[in-house]
Write a structure and sequence with these properties.
single chain; Alpha-D-Glucose-1,6-Bisphosphate, Chain A, domain 3; binds cobalt (II) ion; TATA-Binding Protein; binds alpha-D-glucose-1-phosphate-6-vanadate; 7-stranded antiparallel β-sheet; 7-stranded mixed β-sheet; alpha/beta; 3 domains
Amino acid sequence: MDITTVTTTPFTDQRPGTSGLRKKVAVFRQPHYLENFVQSIYDALEGVEGQTLVVGGDGRYYNRPAIQTIVKMAAANGFGRVLVGRGGILSTPAASCVIRKQHAYGGIILSASHNPGGPDGDFGVKYNIGNGGPAPEKVTEAMFQRSKEITAYRTVEAPDIDLDTLREQRLGQMRVEIIDPVADYAALMEELFDFDAIHALFNSGLFHMRFDAMHAVTGPYALEILEQRLGAQPGTVMNGVPLEDFGGGHPDPNLTYAPELVEIMNGATAPDFGAASDGDGDRNMVLGRRFFVTPSDSLAILAANAKLAPGYAHGLAGIARSMPTSCAADRVAEALGIECYETPTGWKFFGNLLDAGKVTLCGEESFGTGSDHVREKDGLWAVLFWLNVIAKRQQAVEDIVREHWTRFGRNFYTRHDYEEVDSAAAQQMMTELRTRLATLPGQRHGDYVIDSADDFSYTDPIDHSVSSGQGLRILFAEGERIIFRLSGTGTAGATLRVYVESYELDPSRHHQDTQETLAPLIALADQLAGIRQRTGRDRPTVIT
Ligand code: VG1
Ligand code: CO
């Protein structure tokens, strides 16, 4: 088979963000745009000759043509074998699982996660390394550098491969295997959780759940695992067929973008348990009957109950949470006598800690929870973990959470997002606040005294790499926190995220409303940073 070398010129905007290169579909469709980035990935890797690459995506628009391009270029760049999920489908955690289980060199995952899809929506490409996790910064930086100097890419002239039949094909010297996207992943879940106990729970007829796959990638996984293997009632999984535009929705499992599920769970005949996952299947939202579990609490509760699941029966080595995630998990770690690590936003920062065996569970406030079973956050895993805990404790979700608060105290927590604000204005607001950070400690604002303030910087405990500029933190004397960050996953303008938290030990106050409880701190955040004035917005776009 002939390898073709195509001459090209660099684009200057191919710097991967929080999780890969994420752009509008129209940007990716420019001639050579995808090819340039894929060649930059391959160029940044060493010794790929004869190696195995895993390829799959969340099924969004442009998934299939992109896979054809990536596979042909893999053949031209010397890979020995490519594993592709049937139909081009692989959820992010399943891709991580396959990379590990099949000892692949790495994988390319096509997704823009929770961002909307379709011809006018977003697309994304991320590279995962051999441990199954997102490429660390030094690797993504090498790709970006390469993309700025690229002059040619390599591909092969060949007919498209058949993505829809489980079989082996050849592209020159390279084997292409179409694999069942669910098999390896489902087998791993069976090892980790007590499927018999969960099966009995569903079988009792006294327990009902709804899982909203949001027309994204988790549909086939949830149908197989929840309905087929665990015996949940047919219809438990809703919106279970992946669609290229996610049915026009925003596949982000939160109270704003999953209104259908939220309405069911708030209804008079609400089931016992509700859950949803995002575009690429790595996020989760967990709901009880008329009850929302914050992702930060979910991490803490799973940690406190981990021994109920067979995969974690021996206990946890440690816990890690991203900096903006609430401190609820820290209290559990303290009680368990284990370490709790605080990392920058983005799953890639957990990789070294997991590989070194320092932590077992990880979580982010952005509906991400996971463990050392793979190297990505894992939506369905979190749902199965909750089901395992419910089956063992035989309690309602709300009761489990309230008991947790009584024991550990409650971290009231909210995130306010200001989406698509003017980039320059958002940058300026951050810069201005950054220069004033040193003057803040000691200031009193009503009931709150500022204890310290900094621009979060992280030194990886394993490889000692330093990641600075990871968010402005204002910490108060009684455990309250206000954090300002600019998103690294948006594709239009800037997204400002403001994270606000307080801590309450007194159980008589645990029933309070989150937004009301945090209102004075939310007002203070605006006062300190001038959000309204700088962004011209009088309220956030999304509150979680
Ligand atoms: C967001 C979240 C972050 C998460 C990232 C990728 O990043 O805040 O916690 O790791 O998305 O999630 P940012 O930079 O926009 O705040 V996903 O589901 O895209 O893989
Ligand atoms: Co995602």
